[in-house]
Every structure is written in C-alpha cells, then in structure tokens.
Amino acid sequence: MDLLKFNLNLLHTIRAINKHRSLTEAAKELGLKQSSVSQKLQTVRNIFNDQIFEQRPGSKKYFLTPRGKEIVGAVEKMLKDFETAISMGENFNFETSTRVFEIAISEYVSHYYLPAFEGMTTRIAENLAFTFHRVNYRPNTNKIAVSECERLLNRELDFILFEGVIKHEGISGETLLSDEWVFIAKEDLETDLEEGQKLTAEHLIGYKIAVPFSAPELSLPNDPIKLRVPSIPEIPLFIQQSKSKIGLVPRKFAELHAKPSLNNRPGTGLKILMHDLELPPIEIKLYQAIASNSSEDVLWLGNEIKANTKRGR
Fold first, then answer.
1. Are residues 32 and 151 in the same domain?
2. What is the rounded CA–CA span in Å between residue 131 and residue 104?
C-alpha cells in the first residue's frame, strides 16, 4: 500500500467507530452523515482486504476482527504520537487545550478521584475533557487484564488508576495513597463487640464474609465462608441484602458508609470493626506507559493527579 496516497481522514473514521462501536455515533463525533461513514469504512475494508469491523449475531455493535485489532492498535499509536509531537511543539497549555484524556479507573478508585477531575476542569482547565473507562481485571485476582496493558502501551489510554498490581514491560506505576483494610458489619451482628473494638479471627468463625476480588487472601483458622463480590462499592449493599453480616473494605470507604455517616447523611446500618489481623495495605496506583513520560500533556496531568492526592481531594 502506498502511504502517500492514503487519506489520513480514514484514520479518524477507524478511531471513531472503534470508540463508539456504532456508525451512527461515529458519524455524530465526526460531523458526518452515517452514509459517509459507511463509505469510508468500505474504503478501509478494500484497502486492507479485511472487514476490520464486524457485527455479531443479535448485536448492532461493531467489533474488531483480529486483523482490525492490529490495525486499530497501530492507528491509535500513530495518532497519539502525532498529537504528542504537536502538543510538545506548541508547549502544551492546559488553560487553552481541548485535549481529551483517556483514563481507565476502577469503581473503587472513582469514589476518590472523579470529584478531583471535576474540580480540576472547573478550577484551572475548563476546556479539557476526560473519558473514563472501567478497568478490566481478572476475576478472583487484583491483577489487571493484559488487554488494558496493551491499550496503555498503544496510547489508547493515558493513565490507569487502579488498586491492583500491574507488572508489565513498558509500564510504570506510582503509589498515590495507601489505606488499611477494615471489616464493616451489620449493626445487629450477634457479638459482644462494640463499634471500633478489636476483631480477632475467633470472632469470625461461623460468619460469611463478603470479600472483593481485589482484596488479599484471608488466612484464618477454621476459615469462614468467603463470598467474592465484584467490587468494593457493592459490598455495603450486598451485606444489607444478604445473610452475610460482615464485609472487608478499605477504611476510607468504610467511613463513607458506616454510622455515624458523614455530611449528615442517613445511616446505613453498618459499623466499623477494628481488627488485629495482619493484612497488607490497599494501594491506589497511577500507571502510565514509560514512553509517554516525555509528553508535556501527560506529564502535566500526572502531576495534577498527584497534587490533588496530596490536597486530599
């Protein structure tokens, strides 16, 4: 294929379709008619001799073919590199930039950082925009899916904010804050423990404990039944609606849901129980591709995220 004859606008078409999985939504983003986007997609298919995107039975969404994944990965990297070169040449100005940052964030971490991003845009950089994606991690582990690492390396993502571990060549991580694990329990828990008293392994015998996928393994004598739940935010509701009366959550999150509640909100019927079980801390980390460290826009946002963490936002 002669790249000199390749219409670069087709790259933006590929990118938009991949982002929205829809020709209609891609057309809205590009400011084109859907028929025009369909024509461009057909042109791309002819050039690469592949469908690139295909619709599965029973779905109106467009999904990448194996060849399409290779092409889109290359397209994203090419466009990101080009955008980075431009922003560095212009000395990135966050006050006037209309840059859209792509960030993958876990549901738990979003409780801490989404307000910070909102405050950041209204306070100092109102033209910036953020697209947030839910972090994809493997069930029963606190390890992120390989696909997320590939998206970060291909610059489809600028950052990943996650309480788990990423060990992947080309990706660096920095701890933003640490928290301790505590148990929360229903107020009618049948025990002589008062709120805030020490909880030992013996107290847990006979109870079902709700434990998130990202929690460390509990090593207890006469292990109680551990019920795995997808994410930390779901645990309080899970406890209230099930026969389980105890759950393991980070302290900062527990303080938002246990009585007495903050900001004069109604109580949830949950209380915090201290414990003397030795569990490793939970750490929120900021991950990015090492290759993006020299990009002024990414460097600026990374520093802002760290600064907001120190301010306690």
1. no
2. 8
